[in-house]
Input
Amino acid sequence: MALDLALVGKEGAPSVFEYAWKDVVLYALGVGAKSDELDLLYEGRGPQVLPSFAVVPKFAPMLDLLAGTGGDLAMIIHNAERITVHEPIAPAGKLVTTAKVRGIYDMRRFAHVLVDTRTNDARGTLVMETTSTMIFRDAGGFGGEPAPKDPVPVERPKDTPPTFSIEETTSPEQALLYRLSGDHNPLHADPEFARRVGFERGPILHGLCTFGFMVRHVARALCGGDVSRVRSVEAQFRRPVWPGDTLVTEGWVVRPGAVALRVRVKERDDAVITGAWALLR
Output
């Protein structure tokens, strides 16, 4: 089915997201937080909110726009994510998110859809922005323009050992836990559905879950665990991760406050996140 190009440049209706500290803690557990990270897990210490929580309030309005394109949501893949946090995310409150389709691009067999979001707090202050790159498989070939290439603010140095490396094994239930934060795609829960769309091994881990692990690792390695220092992060999702895989996050400090990143799966030595970077306060 052809995608509706008339949606480009149009904003969806504002989406209200009300949440409590339990939602913040559930998200942190979903991206692997452990008992030695009580600042993320205990309301007596806030809790602090991971900057990657920015993907939670924006998920529903983004999905509404993607559904409006007319594409088959069963054939969608999350290709890349960028977040920028302008103000500390409160541990509870009300957020209002507006989403807009920036562009629909022709990549021959695939179609790329870029969705931008802006999230304000109840006072109208801009808290965070995101950009998601989504791929509709088998939806390309409509004669459109290819996706533009944005400049990368932090390049990974070649032939240089990483500044840090953190290894962490995901649980077999990781995707089932992460999906409770709002991404209910059956690809991450239903073995029969996963096989039907090409993943014979079974449900895969959400790319945004791996993204959250990476953000936690950056804060632990370079910020003394202070997640509020992580200002902006981008990642490209290259290969699938299965629950139970061991993630290895590697970081190269290129200059003060700027780190290039990569995430590998240890068991297969697969680079599952590349072209990644973070900017720190």
